């Protein structure tokens, strides 16, 4: 399926109910929503375009509100993931609309510019905003990967050990040095987050099955992401 990039963002309150579709080949299909967040100018749109469309452009228009891209990927030969990438404008951290944009996300990519210390310092604010507004079905934080983007630029301002310590201190499972320009670690980062989302999906499905077996399918706690 070709990648799509569309500013006309669909919204549906029931978006994130999981619904597996079985094909004759026993391939299962699932839809995941990932957020791409971080300050203005760190390369979020370039990362999304590189991953979804396989191309890089040095001149991007400033994202207003949010942009939206779709890519389908196969995992383990029997799972098709329809991935929705929501590219959130860097100015939106202070806006009330982030709660709408974040709704039903199952993972997040937080991006900073490795050559600009200021964009690294604001990562914690993006994490706080994210964790205040979206969580998994059990209340735990959504999986996050941190991208130290523009690693192709010589003389990075932020030492590797500083980034590693930040991840340990703030519960970030994985970080990657990336370059949308040179196509470095973009696929690897997304693959990691997809695998984490599949793990979460598996646990969520087991939760729903357990609730139904116990005769509590009408419980006030829905087995879906909020």
Automatic annotation (TrEMBL):
Keyword Zinc applies: no
Keyword Lipoprotein: yes
Subcellular location, record wording: Membrane
GO CC terms of this entry: late endosome; lysosome; membrane; phagocytic vesicle; trans-Golgi network
SUPFAM superfamilies: P-loop containing nucleoside triphosphate hydrolases
Keywords per UniProt: GTP-binding, Lipoprotein, Membrane, Nucleotide-binding, Prenylation
Topology of the protein relative to the lipid bilayer: Lipid-anchor
Gene Ontology molecular function: GTP binding; GTPase activity
Entry's Gene Ontology BP terms: endosome to lysosome transport; phagosome-lysosome fusion
Function: The small GTPases Rab are key regulators in vesicle trafficking.
PANTHER family documented for this protein: RAB FAMILY, RAS-RELATED PROTEIN RAB
Family, similarity comment: Belongs to the small GTPase superfamily. Rab family.
Protein name in UniProt: Ras-related protein Rab
Source organism of this protein record: Bemisia tabaci (Sweetpotato whitefly)
């Amino acid at each position: 399926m070709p990648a799509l990039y569309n500013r006309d963002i669909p919204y549906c309150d029931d978006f994130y109910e999981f619904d597996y579709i079985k094909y004759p080949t026993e391939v299962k299909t699932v839809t995941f929503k990932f957020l791409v967040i971080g300050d203005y100018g760190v390369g979020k749109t370039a990362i999304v375009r590189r991953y979804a469309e396989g191309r890089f452009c040095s001149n991007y228009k400033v994202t207003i509100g949010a942009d939206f891209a779709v890519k389908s990927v196969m995992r383990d030969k029997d799972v098709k993931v329809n991935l929705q990438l929501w590219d959130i404008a860097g100015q939106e951290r202070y806006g009330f609309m982030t709660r709408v944009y974040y709704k039903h996300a199952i993972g997040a990519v937080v991006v900073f510019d490795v050559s600009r210390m200021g964009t690294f310092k604001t990562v914690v604010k993006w994490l706080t905003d994210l964790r205040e507004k979206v969580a998994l079905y059990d209340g735990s934080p959504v999986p996050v990967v941190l991208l130290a983007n523009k690693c192709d630029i010589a003389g990075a301002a932020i030492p590797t050990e500083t980034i590693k310590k930040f991840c340990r201190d703030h519960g970030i499972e994985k970080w990657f040095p990336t370059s949308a320009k040179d196509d470095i670690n973009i696929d690897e980062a997304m693959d990691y987050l997809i695998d984490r989302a599949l793990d979460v999906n598996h646990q969520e499905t087991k939760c729903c099955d357990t609730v139904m077996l116990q005769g509590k399918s009408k419980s006030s706690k829905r087995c879906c992401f909020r």
